Amino acid sequence: MRPYGMLCVVFVALAASCVAAPSQTAPTAVATTAPAVTVATAPTVTAIPTATAPFAVIEMGDNFFDPSQLTVKVGTTVTWKVVGQSTHDLAARDGSFVNRTMSFGQTFLFTFTKAGHYGYVCMQHEGDGMIGEVTVID
Question: Selecting from 2.60.40.420, 2.40.160.20, 3.30.70.260, 3.40.50.720, what CATH number does the domain 63-137 have?
């Protein structure tokens, strides 16, 4: 073979290797990151106290007060409510309040404006132990 022919064979071989099927490379992994998540917290709600007077309820059952001993702050309105079948009346031992005879469902309200101890009774049933006391504190 002539040197020129040899050169042609080398050239043809090189050209064939270049024209051969394209080589494939392994796919590369694409790193992805999750989108940032923002967590919003609910705003804190603070209750605003309302300007209402405090109150308490004492039930008047058949020959008892429930509760029979109660402690409240000055300015509290106490409601006595008849829940028993008998009629009842109500009187403070110091005379600060007196109420007529009440029957089932009726109420009597009194607002305490001074600190102290206020004993009271159902005059009809005092002998049966229907007595109580409200202690009023500042």
Answer: 2.60.40.420
